[in-house]
Amino acid sequence: MAETESKNADPVYDIPKECKAGVVVNEGPDFRVEVQMVPVPEIRPNEVLIKLNATGICHSDIHFMLNDWALPKMSEMGTKCAGHEGAGVIVKVGSDVKTLKTGMRAGFKPIADTCGACELCRTDKECYCSKAVMTGLMCDGSYKQYVVSPERYTTVIPDGVSDFIAGPIMCSASTIYTSIKDSKLEPGDWAVFPGGGGGVGMQGIQLAKAMGLRAIAIDTGADKKKLCLETAGAEVFIDFKDVSDVAAEVVKTCDGIGAHAVFVTAVQSYPSSVSLLGARVGGRVMCIGLPPAGTQRIEVDPNQMCFRKQGVQGTLVSSMADVDKTLDFAKRGLLKPIYTVYPLSKFDEAVQKLRRGEIAGRAVVDFNREE
User: Fold this and answer.
1) Sequential DSSP letters for 245-273
2) What pTM, to 2 d.p., does this model score?
3) Taking CA 154 as the corner, what is the angle to CA 142 and CA 319, rounded to the nearest 5 degrees?
4) Rounded mean pLDDT of the chain?
C-alpha cells in the first residue's frame, strides 16, 4: 500500500481493490479459516476505512464460526470474516467525516455500531443497544485486512501502544476491565480469576494489580503458572490439577474467608464459581466467559445470597469510554505484551490452537507477515 504525503496535508493511500482475509469455511463443528482475497469494502460519507495491521483471536470468534450460541449463522447475515480485535491505520475517510483523518491509528471493536439514539446509547451502556451491530457476526470482522467503521464509533489508538497490544484491548482487555470496574472492588480486595492463564484472564490479572487488587490465578501448567506470576503479576497461582479442593485453597488464601470477587473467563468454572466466595460478605461472581448455549449453569442458594449479601452479575463487552480507559493502562506500561504472533499462513492453526486451549495469553495474527 503506497502512501504519499505533502507538507501540512493528510497522507493519501493507494487503496487496493482486494485484500487478504481469514474466511470461515464450512461453518459448524468442522469449520476452518482459509486465507482468501476478498473485495475491499466501500465507505459511506460518515465512515472511515481502516487497514488493519493485526487482529487478536477471541473465543467469541470460535463460537460464531461454530454457531453454538443459538444465534443466526454468519453466512445468513452475509458475513465471511469473524474477529473483533483489530488495530491499524485509517486510510480513507468519508466526505462527512469531521474529526478523524487518514494516518490516524484506529481499532475495530466487538460492536461495530449502535443506534446512537436510545436510552442505552446516551449512557455508558451503548453496547447493550438492541440495534447494536455485532462485529464478525452481523458484519465482516477483523479477520479482514480492510474494514469499515462509522466515525462516531471508531476508537483512536494512542501512540505508545503497539498494534499487537491494542488489538486484544478492543475486546478481551477492555471487557475484563469493565467487569472489574463494575464489581466495585476496593484496593486490597481479593480478585480470583478461574482461567487466569488465558488471554482475558491474564490481562485481567494485570489490570487488577494496577487497580490495587490482590489477584489469584486458577489454571494449570508450568508455562501458565510462570506467565501469571512473573509477567502478569498474580500474587498466587493455584493449579487445579495439583489441588484436591480448589475452593478450600482459595478460601484459605483469601484471609480464611473467601474471594471478594470471582471473574469467570473459563466457562467450565461456572458451576463451582460461587464456592470460591466462601463466607465473604458482599462477595460476587462476575460472569464474563460465554459458554455454548445451554451447557453451563450456576446453582445459587437464595439464603446464602441474602445472609452474605452475595451476588452473581454479568457483563458483556465495553463501552467506548472503557476501551479508552484500558488503552490508557497500556499507554502507561501497565499491560504487558503477553501474546503469540502468527503470520497469515498460520491463521487457521492459531484459531484451532485457541479452540483446543493450547495458547497461553493471547493469539494475534500479523497481516503484514505472510510466513
Assistant:
1) -HHHHHHHHTTTT--SEEEE-SGGGGGGG
2) 0.94
3) 95
4) 96
